[in-house]
Each structure stands twice: as structure tokens, then as C-alpha cells.
Amino acid sequence: LAGFGFITFETEEERDTVLAAVGEELEVEGTVVTVAAARGRRRRTYRRREE
């Protein structure tokens, strides 16, 4: 996920699988997706693509 400004998930299952793999959590507020590392060291914000 690092370095990508836009990420798109087709399903919640896909989202959960990807985030579990990188050990991070996803918080969704409207169209803003915030990915926060479990240890709290990094915080990155992504905007969902709207189709």
C-alpha cells in the first residue's frame, strides 16, 4: 500500500484481506480512507476513487 495515493477495494472481504496482510486497520469516514499502522508509528490517508 505504501506509495499509492489511491486504493480501491471491490469488497469488504478484499479490503480486510489486504489490510490483514500488511497488519493495518482501515477506518472509513465518508470517502476518506485512513490507514493507521497497528503500532501507531505511521498514518497515511487515501481517498477512494469514485466511479
UniProtKB/TrEMBL annotation:
<dbReference type="InterPro" id="IPR035979">
    <property type="entry name" value="RBD_domain_sf"/>
</dbReference>
<protein>
    <recommendedName>
        <fullName>RRM domain-containing protein</fullName>
    </recommendedName>
</protein>
<dbReference type="InterPro" id="IPR012677">
    <property type="entry name" value="Nucleotide-bd_a/b_plait_sf"/>
</dbReference>
<dbReference type="GO" id="GO:0003676">
    <property type="term" value="F:nucleic acid binding"/>
</dbReference>
